Amino acid sequence: MDYFAAVRAFVSAAELQSFSKTAHEMAVKTSTISRYVSELEKDLGIALFNRSTRGLVLTEGGRLFREHAMVALQALDDARQVTSSLNRTPQGVLRVTMPSAFGRRHIVPHLPAFMTRYPAIGLDIVSTDETLNMIEAGIDVAIRIGVLPDSSLMAKRLAPHRRIVCGSPAYFERSGMPHVPEDLAAHDALRLSLLPDDKWSFTRAADALASPEQVLVELRGRLRADDSEAVLELAVAGCGLALLPTWLASTALREGRLQHALPEWEARTGRAEPAVWAVYPPKKIVSSKVRAFVDFYAEVIGEPPYWDDGLALALQP
């Protein structure tokens, strides 16, 4: 039995005092309304109506059940209306997780504009480099970087994740500029301990779309860190070469504190192209607050991403 449909049929029949009028009102057969009421009476173990030539008359139990049923139906209608309104006007608390460095540089600075545009949305920001289970952590949207594993989550690509070899002018003056990836074996590499091994893989930029041959370089160097911003600062200080994403290194490149080595080569870790993603749990209808956040940052970041805008000349060593 569809309990809520049966309760609605009962309440309507009590008001109209007729199964046939209720059937017409609900656009179903009269026998359907009669069956609903009979099933309710069987479930409750009590008669809800007395039938007479004048129509339907509520029993004492029927009056009591109607009183409470109307409260329940009104609460259900209110819940549907309030929940449905979330999809019409973006509102409610949005819980977002993001990698710490990327969040500080490219999510948090734009939050004032987002909150001005959507004054009914509250934000709960979780900055962490740990990949959280979105369902268990109650996350609405996650910003993730790299190649996404196969999962049931929905994702929107916000930007490419381009990584380049960088070093300070002082470092290149002291140690020389590498011209091919193999030259890196003779340089001090600043390694990110979050990566699976001490190797960088490269393909020629012009060949990136056509099954390129990869050049794998074994690294050496005395410094390793588990934080990308620490690696950036060490590179700016002249401690070695670093493989950095352009979203992190672009400001230092424009200011001349870093120079781009091997501009004809792209760093790759596999066949799939890494990217910056907005990830959210699968739902038949994506809530308006999630859609507003994802669309806002897709608009702000742009294509190509704003951190790469005008960077072509700055990337030349």
UniProtKB/TrEMBL annotation:
A family per Pfam: LysR_substrate
Key word Transcription regulation present: yes
InterPro entries: LysR-type_TF_proteobact-type, LysR_HTH_N, LysR_subst-bd, WH-like_DNA-bd_sf, WH_DNA-bd_sf
Keywords: DNA-binding, Transcription, Transcription regulation
Transmembrane segments: none
Molecular function terms from GO: DNA binding; DNA-binding transcription factor activity
Occurrences of domain HTH lysR-type (ranges): 1-59
Recorded family membership: Belongs to the LysR transcriptional regulatory family.
Protein name, per record: LysR family transcriptional regulator
The organism of origin for this protein: Paraburkholderia elongata
